[in-house]
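Supplementary Methods, section 5.1.

A reviewer requested that the exact input to the structure prediction be made available. We therefore reproduce it here, unchanged from the version used in the analyses.
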Amino acid sequence: MSKDYLLGSIVEMKKGHPCGTNEWEVVRIGLDIKIKCLNCARIIMMSRLEFNKKLKRIIK
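The structure derived from this sequence is encoded token-by-token as follows.
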């Protein structure tokens, strides 16, 4: 799987969020990656390594 996500990409994570969705928007890319839940707008920041492990697929 290629890791070619960009700012604004919609990604699907392996584990769902408690609000009921597992689709997220990438809002910041750097050493850490910040993603925003598309259902409840919660923002989570994680390391790039952790993000790549938890990423299931890039939707758009």
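The beta strands are 10-13, 23-29, 32-37, 43-47, 55-58. These observations are discussed further in the main text.
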